[in-house]
UniProtKB/TrEMBL annotation:
It comes from Cytobacillus oceanisediminis. This is Putative MFS family arabinose efflux permease. One of its GO terms (cellular component) is plasma membrane. The chain crosses the membrane at residues 41-62, 74-91, 97-118, 130-153, 159-180, 212-233, 239-261, 273-289, 295-324, 345-376. PANTHER family: INTEGRAL MEMBRANE TRANSPORT PROTEIN, INTEGRAL MEMBRANE TRANSPORT PROTEIN-RELATED. One of its GO terms (molecular function) is transmembrane transporter activity. The keyword Transmembrane helix applies. The keyword Translocase does not apply. SUPFAM superfamilies: MFS general substrate transporter.
Amino acid sequence: MIKKRLDRYLVFMCTCLFTVSIAGSRPLIPLYAKQLGAENIHIGVIIALFSMLPLLLSVKTGTVIDYIGVKKPLIFSIVIGSISMLILSISRDYIGIYISQIFAGFAHLVFVLSIQSYAGHFSKNKLREYYIAIFSIAVASGSFAGPVISGFLTDTISYSYAFLVLGLIILIALPLSWLFHEIQIKAPKSIEPHEKAEKAFRLLQDSHLRKAILISSLVLLVKDAYIAFFPLLAAEKGVSTSVIGVIISLNAAAGILIRSILPWIVQRYKRKMIIIISIIMAGIIYMINPFVDHVIWLCILGFILGFCSGIGQPLSIFVTIIALPKDRIAEGLGLRLMFNKVTQVVAPLSLGAVSGVVGMSGVFYLCGAVILAGGIQPCKSLFYKKYKR
């Protein structure tokens, strides 16, 4: 019982501290690049760099974590994440931003796979769902605090000081990560390198896993496009960096609230209906954003969008874990993250290029159209019937 209680607090604290740093830096990156003179298409490339290594290494990283356990990768991710912030604090050019985003993206991949794998190795489904819920709430909490802290520090002092503080915050999780007990995992059967990718992709033969991954990628588009491009849209409207941070934090606060009441909602309504409605609402909000100039309405729209994006992530993580063999959980989660990273690479590159022609408003119209198309697309089944409540 003591170990379980300790695990619960460790998962929450490490995830929250790590997310404060990463989430706090994400809205600052496009604004910082803009200050250095970057065009929108260049900013799209910078944002895409965050997901470049995870796109290439997600499955392999998951396989390694399944083999060596979660503790060492967790410590590694915290150290690399801190270094990525410190690079930004001392850099004054694009090279520093490039290196930082590559480091931060890989650190984020390793951290998320480690924590989710830790949660997924509990034998009981209720414990798995419980720890995934703790992870999701911690992510939302960190995503709320991070932009507020970074926005305030940037407006009152400087970008460099904000990145320095974020780099130090993430280091607080380092001693906590040593307290995790190592999970004993059986050594996998040796296979040839060319067979590893094929073996991982065989997991996609499960239709429920495929649908969970597709929903996850769509929800990620809702969340990440907002964090990446809303600061630029708001800056065009004359909104200050600290206020932009508050709006993005309200978006994250809605994620905390929806995650806390999601079990109650799922008990009363079908998961399929909940997800489709949330995606359609998100698409509509994207289309409305360019028409709104008042800060209060921008806050309201951001808050509602947080509700929408906060629904799909925990549900898709849980159904992904349920669909996977116990000795391949991190590998399967890595496969899910790989498809997520495809979205995170393709979206900013294409949207950054489009923004040069249609502007930031056009980016939000295009995102809204894509999200609406994904939500309206009929879907026969998203989750196992036997796991419906």
